[in-house]
Design brief:
Layout lengths: L1 H22 L5 H5 L3 H7 L5 E2 L5 E2 L8 H13 L5 H8 L3 H13 L4 E2 L2 E2 L13 H10 L2 H4 L19 H10 L13 H7 L4 H13 L14
Antiparallel strand pairs: 1-2, 3-4
Length: 226
């Protein structure tokens, strides 16, 4: 019995130690700026379009939340997100690389006023949704997770989506509805349940409105010299 207790205690301590080490990984924005060579070819070019699974503007990631960037990269690495190019890139990154890149992009382009970050996320939507779009937003209660202006998510691991490219949002939302496809799809059960409530035409309406909302996201071209 004592031997069993000792074994359980040792395993518990080991798990706690591993969890503690994982929590101690802190991103270094400066280091992230030197590790983004695989990112800037798409995310550092304004208006750049991907062609898989269809033509759409790649998402703006400068100004995105750091914890969401890490969560998304881990989902690609695990295969929960199936985009082949992003999976290959994520698979090449260590936990420290992800933390550094997230720190870099979450701060990239953020404007400070009198030493404080400009609170853009406190701004309201740039325009009120139509009655039809408001009904669609209410159907899945989108604001309950992503915030009233869709740029203040209740959990930092959730994305800011206000102002994101409409065509990207549409493709991303459709991906949550896709099943049994080895190259297309996203495995988040909560978002899958939300997205499946809508037709693709309705998802396109939602994406169009969300893109019109003023937010923090932007594309910052790569500097010519580091």
């Amino acid at each position: 019995m004592n031997k069993l207790f000792t074994t359980i205690f040792a395993v518990t301590v080991s798990c706690v130690t591993v969890a503690s080490l994982a929590q101690e990984i802190k991103g270094d924005a400066k280091a992230g700026e030197t590790k983004n060579a695989m990112c800037i070819g798409c995310h550092g070019i304004k208006g750049y379009q991907a062609s898989f699974p269809e033509v759409y503007k790649v998402p703006m990631i400068s100004g995105q939340g750091a914890k969401y960037i890490i969560a998304a990269l881990n989902e690609y690495k695990k295969g929960d997100r199936k985009h082949p190019t992003m999976r290959a890139i994520a698979d090449s990154l260590t936990d420290q690389d992800m933390a550094d890149l997230a720190a870099h992009y979450s701060a990239d382009g953020v404007v400070e006023v009198n030493g404080a970050t400009d609170p853009k996320t406190s701004k309201a939507a740039s325009k009120e949704p139509s009655v039809e779009v408001q009904a669609l937003l209410n159907k899945a209660n989108c604001a309950s997770c992503h915030g009233a202006n869709f740029s203040t998510p209740i959990d930092p691991a959730y994305p800011k989506i206000g102002g994101q490219h409409a065509d990207y949002l549409f493709v991303a939302l459709k991906a949550y509805k896709t099943e049994n496809n080895p190259k297309v799809g996203r495995g988040n059960a909560i978002m899958a349940g939300m997205a499946k409530q809508y037709t693709n035409a309705e998802l396109k309406q939602l994406a169009g409105y969300l893109a019109s909302v003023e937010g923090d996201l932007k594309t910052i071209p790569q500097k010519k010299f580091r």
